[in-house]
């Protein structure tokens, strides 16, 4: 018994074209990855090594920045300590000048019995209080100027009426 296939050439051509199109689409949608497992592993190792190298460079830069900041902070602290020491030194010098001026004024017979206040700031001596005469007032200025470390004298002594 012979079976006859009803073949329509248009249907057959459509079927063949559809199969060819389907095969092409399947082949195009799959990415071409011809790398072997060993090559993929080598690529991953190379990327890891590069990341480690980059991290090492970043760490060196950060360490250098931290070192510079630390050095700058040390220099700033040194300058601050030096300035503080200078201020303390000036305060001690001012106190010594005040003491020396008071001691010198006590030695003068006209000024020793009087209450003369002496203030010193940065070597500038200011005298407050009474003076028995204009000449005693001027002597107080001369005595204060003679003390080592005095840069100037601001004489605010008032001549008292006799």
Note the topology.
Blueprint: H1 9-29, H2 37-106, E1 117-121, E2 124-131, H3 134-145, E3 152-159
Parallel strand pairs: 2-3
Antiparallel strand pairs: 1-2
- Describe the strand arrangement of the main beta sheet, using strand numbers: 1-2-3
What is the overall shape? Answer: rod-shaped
Helix content: 55-70%
Terminus-to-terminus distance: 165 Å
Low-confidence stretches: none
CA radius of gyration is 50 Å
Q: Main sheet, how many strands, which sense, barrel?
A: 3 strands, mixed
- Quickly count the helices: 3
Beta content comes to 5-15%
Give average pLDDT, whole number.
Answer: 80
* H-E string: HHEEHE
Structure description:
It is a single chain. The protein has 162 residues and is of the alpha+beta class. The protein is built from three helices and three strands; from the N terminus they run H-H-E-E-H-E. It has a three-stranded mixed sheet with strand order 1-2-3. Helix 3 (134-145) links the parallel strand 2 (124-131) and strand 3. The relative contact order is 0.07.
Give the gist of this structure.
By secondary structure, this protein is an alpha+beta fold.
Brief descriptors of the model:
single chain; three-stranded mixed β-sheet; 162 residues
């Amino acid at each position: 018994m012979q079976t006859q296939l009803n073949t329509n050439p248009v249907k057959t051509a459509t079927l063949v074209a559809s199969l060819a199109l389907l095969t092409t689409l399947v082949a195009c949608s799959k990415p071409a990855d011809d790398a072997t497992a060993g090559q993929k592993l080598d690529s991953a190792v190379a990327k890891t090594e590069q990341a480690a190298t980059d991290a090492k460079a970043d760490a060196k830069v950060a360490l250098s920045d931290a070192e510079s900041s630390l050095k700058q902070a040390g220099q700033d602290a040194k300058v601050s300590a030096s300035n503080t020491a200078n201020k303390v030194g000036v305060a001690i010098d001012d106190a010594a000048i005040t003491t020396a001026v008071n001691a010198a004024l006590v030695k003068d017979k006209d000024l020793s019995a009087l209450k003369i206040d002496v203030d010193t700031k940065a070597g500038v001596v200011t005298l407050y209080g009474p003076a028995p005469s204009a000449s005693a007032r001027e002597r107080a200025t001369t005595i204060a100027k003679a003390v080592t470390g005095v840069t100037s004298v601001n004489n605010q002594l008032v001549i008292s009426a006799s």
